[in-house]
Amino acid sequence: MEYFSLHKGPLNIPEIYTKWYEFSIKQNCGALITFCGIVRDDDKVEGLSFDIYEPLLISWFKNWQERLQKEPVYLLFAHSIGDVKVGESSYFAGVLSKQRKLGLKLISDFVEDFKANAPIWKYDLKHGERIYALDRSSKLLGAGILS
Question: How does it assemble (predicted)?
Answer without folding.
Answer: Heterotetramer of 2 MoaD subunits and 2 MoaE subunits. Also stable as homodimer. The enzyme changes between these two forms during catalysis.
